[in-house]
Amino acid sequence: MRIATKLFTSIALFSLLSGIGIVNAAHHEEAAAPAPPNIVELAAGNADFSTLVAAVQAAGLVETLSSEGPFTVFAPTNAAFAELPDGTVEALLLPENKDQLIAILTYHVVPGNVSAAEVVTLTEVTTVQGDIAAISVTDEGATIDGATIVATDLEASNGVVHVIDTVMMPPSE
């Protein structure tokens, strides 16, 4: 619950700061609002995603996830990665396991900009990795491939991020 509170606080602060316009009193001109970060910058700016960022870097996906997109990323937190069996993250970050890491990470990415309002209308999505991830919506909330979606609609310049509490594994892995 503490992670969700931190994420909510971070999102609220980010939303507040990015929504404030800066007015130049001398010229009575409004400065342009800063551009929202791309997906990688958004993740890198949040300490709860440091393991995800390290994995994206090890997989060589920084450039792709920084590109125009749009992408929808179901982003596992550090706590989600910590739930994997001991040694799993370290093994996945090794160069010889890059293909497996890419498959796992791209299973968390859906092409297009899929908002939370849209996610809850779906029963499945096809991931960039190629497999289908099931979506379930109940009174308790929404899940994707068994991972609970704990925060939604973190806007990036090239898509949207939804935070999940579990690292999803593609069926083919």
Short description:
This protein is of the alpha+beta class and 173 residues long. It is built from eight helices and nine strands. The chain has one domain (36-164): FAS1 domain, CATH 2.30.180.
What descriptive keywords fit this protein?
173 residues; alpha+beta; FAS1 domain; 7-stranded mixed beta sheet; two-stranded antiparallel ribbon; 8 helices; 9 strands; globular
Global geometry: globular
Number of helices: 8
CATH architecture: Roll
Could you tell me the number of beta strands?
A: 9
| Low-confidence residue ranges | 1-29
State the order of secondary-structure elements, H for helix, E for strand. Answer: HEEHHHEHHHEHEEEEE
CATH superfamily heading: FAS1 domain
Largest sheet: 7 strands, mixed
Show the helix and strand layout.
Layout: H1 2-19, E1 23-24, E2 29-30, H2 39-44, H3 50-59, H4 62-66, E3 71-76, H5 78-82, H6 88-92, H7 98-106, E4 109-111, H8 116-119, E5 124-126, E6 132-138, E7 141-144, E8 147-156, E9 159-164
Parallel strand pairs: 3-9
Antiparallel strand pairs: 1-2, 3-4, 5-6, 6-7, 7-8, 8-9
